Amino acid sequence: MTTIAPRPRYAGLDGLRAVAVALVVLYHLFPAWWLRQGFIGVDVFFVISGFLITSLLLRESARAAAAGVPRAHRIDLLDFWRRRARRLLPGLVTLIAVCGLWAWFVGGDVLVGLGRQVLGALTFSYNWASVAAGAGYFEAATPEVFRNLWSLAVEEQFYVLWPLLLPLVLLVPSVWARAVLALAAAGASAAWMAAIVAGGGDLTRAYFGTDTHAFGILLGVALAFALQSTLESPARWMLHPLARSISSLGGFAAVAALVLLASLVPTDGTQTFPGVLLAASALTLGAILAGAWPGSWFGRAIDVSPLRWVGARSYGIYLWHWPVVILLMAAFEGPGAPIPPAVGAAALAITLGAATLSYRFVEQPVRRLGFRGSAKLWARRMHGTPRMRFVAVTSVTAFALAACATTGAIAAAPRETSAESAVEAGARALERSRAAEISSGVAPTPTPKPTYPAPPRAPAEAGEPSLAPQPATVTGDQITAVGDSVMLASAGGLVERLPGIHVDAAVSRSMYAGPGILESLSNAEQLRPYVVVALGTNGPVNADALTRVADIVGPDRSLILVNAFAPRDWIEGVNADLAAFAASRPGVVVADWSGVAGAHTDTLAGDHIHPGSAGGRLFADTVASAVQSVEDARAQAEFERSQQRSALVTRLLTGS
Question: Is residue 8 part of a domain?
Fold first, then answer.
């Protein structure tokens, strides 16, 4: 026997969904705005899902029990999962087909890992597939097209497992004991996230994991248990006007606090993961409780038409916003670049349009009629009027073409991004250079700085050519270079342009690592007369780190700081700090990679950060020119001093 319970209708949930999706969308499309923690909107969705699904299942179980259905059959699992599939799959499959077609047109780095993403999306395992692949949610260099589907995977895994576990929980006789059990599970989940983050574990693993990020859903489950009988038979005091007013004001306060919480600056520690996420979940519980409170006017107020319209389409809006902005950026700005407001506004407009069309023509028909009913409707239209046949054929053909294009995009996807290829090519060039040195059997010995001949002691005779500075050419065996992945990607150009250069470069280094690396090289007597440091790409620099770097290099060597070029908001400050430090410190100069790269962006990889082969040669030329400029300036200064001494000798000899 199939018992289908009508979906419970709680006031305020559509409005809360609208708030949640607004927080997430504004956070992603306009990251420079004030919603720095808008990702908490996902946790609002989690709490709503846990509460609503559990309330639905409890109501279905109660009605089946009242009808005398045996305990083992009170929840129709197949019917529940069928309804979930009707709700989720149509919009999801449409999104994948359309955005797969779009990604195929864009091409390049945006296709990397597309097959894994599509498989993870369709099997609702995206979060675990990303963790297994080492993808980083908080990395901006090469964002994935369907990265936002990780949260959908967490919810769907809950939809699969929870109906199986709920009958066991219902064996606990006390409603409050069930709520406490759910609260304990939520606490364990949050504690597990905190343990991973506090222990220095992978932040993406902690954020994506169903086990570590289930606390919001479980808190919603606990609220559903707690309100199971209260909402159906409210106590008299709950109906008092004062109680209704207090609950309503509490609901508005909870929503306001959510927005305020979203505006705070996040951290990478337990204060945010899970601290802020737990706070957002608790505030959502308060808002749901206020909306469900008997006679509350908060729910009706937050369910005003505009918010209810957005809330009803929040699923589609959430699905579309991220792929749209990523594909727009890949086509016009480059992946990982800061999102200009114009691109964010265009993405928002496309998202709302796509979500509206999907809701009207894809999601709602399947939700009302089911998959079979929708297929029968299409078949009837194929035998209807010419206009109906045209619409039916066009829609199916468009979907088939999009699906084929998505398959083609997956097949054509490169194995790695152009930036990864550039870094690997540089690493291979560096390995070949070191292997050649080892096979030659001769360890490279740094060449000392050149010395200059003594100045002339008498003026030049008439007709003799005038003297001029004679700078020596700086060779690679006089240079030690320390850098990040930009230098590593340029290693091929460096060893070609400056044979014998000692390059120590690695991925994800920042200036904070510079003093330690240079100190180790100094202790190993590997610091040569010219020290090149390129560590400005991965974060801000500070005066203390730069001072320590200069002190380790010492006054007997020359320090060349390479400035940075990357679509990151800290780069301008990094370059200004490097220039100011060089201006205030004798013997320090800046190699202007930012200016060279900005004028030759076509030589960079798709992330607009790492040089390709041509860009690596430009990087090497920039470094070589800066190093040589130091020697040229030294020679010029020595020449001028020589001229001054010569003039003094002349005056002494002539008695003038």
Answer: no
Tokens of 87: 């709700």
Q: Give residue 621's Cα distance to chain centre.
A: 33
pLDDT, one tens digit per residue, over 303-322 is: 999 999 999 999 999 999 99
Shared domain for 137 and 248, answered yes or no, is yes
Q: Coil, strand or helix: which one is 498?
A: coil
How are the residues of the chain apportioned to helix, strand and coil, as percentages rounded to the nearest 5? 65, 5, 30
CB atoms near residue 543 (< 10 Å): 11
**Same domain (yes/no): 311, 216:** yes
Please give the structure tokens belonging to residue 20. 């949640």
Strand partners, 590: 561
Q: Is there a contact between 508 and 423 (Cβ–Cβ < 8 Å)? A: no
Q: What is the pLDDT of residues 444-500, one digit of tens each?
A: 556 565 554 444 444 444 444 446 666 778 999 999 999 999 999 999 999 999 999
378 and 425 co-located in one domain: no
Rg (CA), the chain: 33
Q: How far apart (Å, rounded) are the C-alpha atoms in residues 72 and 330?
A: 52
Q: Give the domain extent around 278.
A: 13-415
Distances (CA, A) of 224 to 87, 182, 217, 494: 21, 10, 11, 64
Question: What SS3 class is residue 502?
Answer: strand
- Rounded Cα distance between 63 and 339, Å, is 51
Are 432 and 407 in the same domain? no
Residue 388 or residue 194, greater confidence: 194
Q: How far is CA 261 from CA 23, 36, 257, in A?
A: 11, 9, 6
Report DSSP letters for 105-159, one per residue. HH-GGGGTTHHHHHHHHHTT-HHHHHHHHT--TT--SS--TTGGGHHHHHHHHHH
Identify the CA nearest to 284 among candidates 310, 245, 304, 255.
255
Q: Do 214 and 292 belong together in one domain?
A: yes
Q: How many CB atoms lie within 10 A of CB 368?
A: 11
User: Taking Cα atoms as reference points, which of 178, 137, 166 lies closest to residue 53?
Assistant: 166
Please, which residues have CB within 8 angstroms of residue 634's CB and are 6 or more apart in sequence? 471
Q: Which residues are paired to 591 by β-bridges?
A: 562
Name residue 561's beta-bridge partners: 533, 590
Whether residues 94 and 206 fall in one domain: yes
Q: Do both 498 and 386 map to the same domain?
A: no
CATH number at residue 535: 3.40.50.1110
Q: At 573, phi and psi to the nearest 5?
A: -65, -40
Q: Is residue 7 part of a domain?
A: no
Look at residues 352, 387, 415 and tell me which one is the last residue of a structural domain.
415
State residue 463's pLDDT score.
46
Amino acid, res. 193: M
Q: How many angstroms from the chain centroid is the CA of residue 147?
A: 9
Q: List, in order, residues 6 or more apart from 549 with CB less than 8 Å away.
A: 511, 514, 515, 518, 533, 559
**Which residues lie below 8 Å from residue 63, measured CB to CB, with a gap of 6+?**
3, 5
Q: Which H or E element spans position 408?
A: helix 386-412
| Residue position matching structure tokens 């319209």 | 309
The count of domains in the chain is 2
In a domain, 627, yes or no: yes
In a domain, 513, yes or no: yes
Domain match, 205 and 335 both: yes
> Nearest Cα to 89, choosing from 117, 116, 120, 121?
121
